[in-house]
Amino acid sequence: MDYSYPFSYDWTTQEVIDVIKFFEAIETAYERGIEREQFMSLYRRFKEIVPSKSEEKKLYDEFEKASGYSSFQVVKKAKEAKNGDWIQGNEK
Questions:
Q1: Contact by Cβ (8 Å): 82, 92
Q2: CATH architecture of residue range(s) 13-81
Q3: CA torsion angle for 75, 64, 32, 49 (degrees, to 10)?
Q4: How far apart are CA 44 and CA 51, in angstroms?
Q5: Distance separating alpha carbons of residues 53 and 57, to the nearest angstrom
Q6: 63: closest CA among 87, 29, 88, 36?
Q7: Element (H, E) at 87
Q8: Would you identify the family this protein belongs to, as annotated (predicted)?
Q9: pLDDT tens digit string along 44-86?
């Protein structure tokens, strides 16, 4: 990984850690897949920290530019999946 994760200086240390865990889950979905329940738990925590759709989109865009991974696509797949399913990102 040769990039940094997007975050806000307004967040607490724990919030930064939790947002990084969410973006790491996006990476995991692309690299080997992730269980839907685990991913959705991280996504719900991310949304507690980033409730604004516009800020969410901004962070997704920053992360995709840096990593090549689409957060939006993984979240969309996770929302459409059923419990017990594995979420897999598309190829980079």
A1: no
A2: Orthogonal Bundle (1.10)
A3: -50
A4: 10
A5: 6
A6: 29
A7: strand 86-87
A8: Belongs to the UPF0223 family.
A9: 999 999 999 999 999 999 999 999 999 999 999 999 999 899 9
